[in-house]
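call fold(seq) -> tokens
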Amino acid sequence: MRRRKPRGSRLTAKRKRRFRLRLVLVALALILLSCVYIWQRVTVITLSAQAKELRLETKRMQEIRKYLEVEVADLSSVPRIEEKGLQMGLTYPDLDQIGLIRELPDSTFLETRGFAKNVWARLRALQKSFLPGDEAVAKEIENEP
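ret:
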């Protein structure tokens, strides 16, 4: 005599397989989330170490900058430059060797009316200062309205 399996046993086998599949999927999800969490923590620790190194490097660079500013102030002092110049054989210029440079007024004329006219007037003034007299080769162009 053979015993027959009850009809409900097939359903329980399917349920067991589904349960196992769900259990495996949940375990995989937990493992994946754990890996992501561990990766995130390692990244945070690495970046915080790099940030600390950069802060130390910034502090060192600021100290170097302060030192170099003091060095520049020392090297560019007028008495030191005069002393070095005299050591190299340089002398002060005579009065006839000194020339004056004409300073142009500031550029506020750019905001005034007649910008092109002002620019043309400036160019003519420059032309006269560089090419005095009949040597001028530039010609004025009249604007047609």
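The two ends are 123 Å apart (CA to CA).
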